[in-house]
Amino acid sequence: MRLIAALAFTLAMAAPAEAQVRRFVLAGVGAVPTSRAYADGFGWEAGSTRLFSVAAAPGNYRVTVTLGDPKRATETTIKAESRRLMLDAVRVPAGRRVTASFIVNVRNAALTPPPLNAPDGTRVALKPREQGSFSWDDKLTLEILGDQPGVSAVTIKPVAVPTVFLLGDSTVTDQGAEPAASWGQMFPAFFKPDVAIANHAESGETLKSFLSELRFAKVLESVKPGDWAFIQFGHNDQKANWPQTYAAAETTYRDYLRTWIAEFRRRGVTPVLVTSPDRRNWTGARIRSTLADYVAAVKAVGAETSVPVIDLNAASIAFYEALGPIRAPLAFNDGGKDATHHDNYGAWVLARSVAKGMAAARLPLAQHLKADLPAFDPSHPPAPETFRLAPSLAHDSTRPDGS
């Protein structure tokens, strides 16, 4: 069976990209053995029985999973790459099978080499924490989670779908380990399997550093007409004590936003501005905003350039104040000691707030949201005590960059 699986994979890789459809059996007869470490293009990561990887060139892939078990009820959560939530607690009764699909975006750090004597480079300047990350390799990685997971087969196929590019900082990025989480990595769970989420955000980033590290260049060479770009910066741009990347809200910050908007529009990409979620700083029972100048700048540039603005800052404040000073730490990283970065619960509520903001702004992209999303209001969030999301395997107590 191992030889058959390896042969099927080799034949698929040799076929034209548009014809590549790869199927892997993960349970039952002919299953990829749990002892098979990743090699020759597929297998389990580091001997794990929860992280399954398949070699994949940069692009978008429709992943279809068969869920269920003939002898027991199952409940399966699936995350992709660096903890991007794809399926959340899908329950299947014993003896039944169901299929579910989602879109995974794969990328690496390589850039198209510039012409001779032209400036720029050939790779994104990754940070140490990004080295070896599932977000920046030539693999599609699935994390299969839950107390009773049941994935019997996986099919992976390249697809051409609209892509939503996320550009931002630590409150947006795919945080690689528990307990930290950001709204960008929860975002895919709210979409139908006809749009991809490409999260290029990274901790500690600013509008300036995103340029100097060639992250913006990577996005620009990856976009195509019909795509979307969600832009959210401010937490680190406002730091005057970071002189190389500081951008004043009244001047340079706005100029950078205008330039980014022009670059995306030149390529047929629709830009969307997102105001930054605020920090958990209180004056009595009300949040004392530390980002008001930057929120105002985003709204001003949006109005001036006719770019939609999703006011996540207002949603975040409504969310925190709804919980109150005592319970709001339940939405934050490090048991609430971190007043900037969120945990799974806080990240999920913020992602749902962005999805609601899309619909409220009547963005055409909102038609790609799942039709069965329940009503949502950040000022009446689900109770943190009842929120459940299967935790990922990786844990790291290191505080994300930025503050």
From TrEMBL:
Q: Which UniProt keywords apply?
A: Hydrolase, Signal
CDD domains per UniProt: Rhamnogalacturan_acetylesterase_like
Q: Which Gene3D superfamilies match?
A: Galactose-binding lectin (2.60.120.430), SGNH hydrolase (3.40.50.1110)
What InterPro entries does its record include?
Galactose-bd-like_sf, RhgT-like, SGNH_hydro, SGNH_hydro_sf
Every SGNH hydrolase-type esterase domain range: 166-320
What Gene Ontology molecular-function terms does this entry list?
hydrolase activity, acting on ester bonds
Segment forming the signal sequence:
1-19
Q: Where is this region: Disordered?
A: 374-403
Q: Which family does it belong to?
A: Belongs to the 'GDSL' lipolytic enzyme family.
Q: Which PANTHER family match?
A: PUTATIVE (AFU_ORTHOLOGUE AFUA_2G17250)-RELATED (PTHR43695), RHAMNOGALACTURONAN ACETYLESTERASE (PTHR43695:SF1)
Q: What is this protein called?
A: Rhamnogalacturonan acetylesterase
